[in-house]
Amino acid sequence: MAEAFTMNGGDGLQHVFRGKSDKQISLIGILQRAGSNAAKETMREVIFEKLDVRSPTSASNTFRIADMGCSVGPNTLFSMQTVQESIENKYPSQGFPPLDLEFQVFFNDLTSNDFNTLFASFPPNKGYFAVGVPGSFYSRLFPASSLHFVHSSFALQWLSKVPEQLLDKNSLAWNKGRIHYTSASGKVANAYTSQFENDIDDFLNARAKEVVAGGMMVLITLGRPDGTHHSKLPLCLLLDALGSSLMDMAKAMELTAPMSKTDVPVGPQDMVIHLRAGIEGMLAKHFGNDIIEELFERTSQKSAEISYALEIQLFVDLKRQ
Ligand SMILES: C[S@@+](CC[C@H](N)C(=O)[O-])C[C@H]1O[C@@H](n2cnc3c(N)ncnc32)[C@H](O)[C@@H]1O
């Protein structure tokens, strides 16, 4: 599962964008960046107020930052720039002399992530030493007490695996005919919740060992407004439309049979394209590439009425004692 989750890389994005106008492509970029932009000011504030690493180590002036689940860019580059600038400005803005720091940024994602696309997009004057770190952030990735700042945006919603009960025909949480919990029983939603609890525990335990005392972690992830049931959330409705399209196709044909290729329709469903950039790899691995075009065309049609007004994000900042 962890390996199936990677976002579309260089060629993959071209594939998703094929047939789209420049306006639509830039709208997708704007959607992806909107969440990070919203968090930018808050991130500056927490770094100014809470980060407490005046001298990274007695032996070195290297400040180490890690982005967990960086994908292929460009959001990770904007986020790392914000973190670096905020740290550089922190002490002068508080009346102290600037720290003489060198920055090292670790870009982490799963081994199947297209790191080459990310590396090729680095700006020439990025101002830090860059390192790619392949592997799951649910396990240890760095030596003990080696990181000063950890950032992760819109990645922790990816679980490490499908909760086992969902695949067990004898379980009350067997998720027959669905790919998600939107319209499923409470037992299915509980199975996802338990898996998330285990995963976030593993994530926090690993980072607790890797972050130095006084260092910080900022986690940005999807959330839902208080009092709103998950079945009302736009992303959940979109996943329901995707699951329902899969079921329609499963009833209409052999999923593994080759299908004739059709052009990607140019429609108003930019959120569907956004979703596709995120999960096409996982679906293609499970069902094969041949169904992808038709699947997302059907999902566009089924999700035309969804309102995205309820979308919110959570911003969590944690300081290592
Ligand atoms: C939606 S993208 C977010 C990209 C970027 N952080 C942003 O804010 O635009 C989620 C990324 O998390 C990565 N990811 C998912 N599970 C992971 C894991 N266990 N370890 C490392 N990366 C993971 C995926 O491969 C994907 O690139």
TrEMBL record:
One of its GO terms (molecular function) is methyltransferase activity. It comes from the Eukaryota. InterPro entries: MeTrfase_7 (IPR005299), SAM-dependent_MTases_sf (IPR029063). Gene3D superfamilies: Vaccinia Virus protein VP39. It holds the Pfam family Methyltransf_7. PANTHER family: S-ADENOSYL-L-METHIONINE:CARBOXYL METHYLTRANSFERASE FAMILY PROTEIN. Belongs to the methyltransferase superfamily. Type-7 methyltransferase family. This is S-adenosylmethionine-dependent methyltransferase. The lineage of its organism: Eukaryota, Viridiplantae, Streptophyta, Embryophyta, Tracheophyta.
